[in-house]
Amino acid sequence: MKNICSILTLSSLVILALVSAIAVSCHRKPATELTYSPERIEIGQAVVEGWNCGFCHTPEIKGPDGKPMPDPKRLMSGYPSDEEVPTIPDMVITSPEWMEFLDNLDSTVWATDNLLIFSANLTPADETGIGTWTVTEFVETIRQGRHRGIERRIKYPMPWQELSELSDEELLSVYEYLMTLEPVNNKVPPSIVLFR
Predict the structure, then answer these.
(1) pLDDT digits over 128-166, tens only?
(2) What is the pTM of this model?
(3) Closest CA to 183 of 147, 133, 129
(4) Could you tell me if residue 151 is inside a domain?
(5) Ramachandran class of 155: left when φ > 0, alpha when ψ lies in -120 to 50, beta otherwise
(6) Is the residue at 166 inside a domain?
(7) Which of 35, 129, 29, 126 has the alpha carbon at shortest distance from 77?
(8) Is 26 inside a domain boundary?
(9) Residue 17 forms part of a structural domain
(10) Vertex 26, ends 20 and 27: CA angle to 5°?
(11) 190 to each of 30, 97, 139, how far by Cα in Å?
(12) How many distinct structural domains can be found in the chain?
């Protein structure tokens, strides 16, 4: 009887270990292998549109009326890698000429006091976007303001502090929505230091 109890206990521990391993591996599964909830996708799209994320993360093209409009083929793909990196003019920041320079940049480029920043590719492209990110990495990035939760800090104007106040359900929904977008292979250039 003692041996049977020991075998059952050992079997239970092995099963528990296997279940835990499966749960961890599912949690770390690449996003492209997951199934998403239509309700979450709808919520995620509403959050993304409500925060106007596409303004910074979607390149612009000229619309039929000649005015800039979001490029539907490059939705949320960040600064276009096929465009030249802007040449930084030699002028005083805050001068009218500097403001004109900024106004002529695509909405996927932002300037701070000392950096020219290019918005990230948020499509599920594996190599250049967030296609290999787990939901945990995505949520930690927003919550901690660090790329993939551990690396470099997320730079202004990304409002991660405000977004970090969203609920887990809302962030999960944003993740699921982004993972349903068309992957765009677009490698965004690193930030440029304006003045040393």
Answers:
(1) 999 999 999 999 999 999 988 677 888 888 999 999 999
(2) 0.78
(3) 129
(4) yes
(5) beta
(6) yes
(7) 129
(8) no
(9) no
(10) 90
(11) 25, 24, 22
(12) 1
